[in-house]
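Batch manifest, entry 17 of 40.
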Amino acid sequence: MKENVDYELIPHDNDMWAIRMLKGDYVETEYQYNIIRVREDDMLSYSVDILKSPMPDLTDKDSDFQVMTGHVLLDILENNTGK
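Output type: structure tokens
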């Protein structure tokens, strides 16, 4: 995943940011990450809220959606940690 190619960051309520997908199976879906934490086993744990989607039945429990949001989160972290 690559910012401004596959997804873009968009302003959201209360100085928060959301993600809008630009390509792929979830194009035009907008979502926001909630709590992001590192578990005791050093794995990331997070949840998302779907804000808008052209897919009326899409939920945050969709396994393909979860994989995609993980790839986006990884890209955001890798590109914003001073590398």
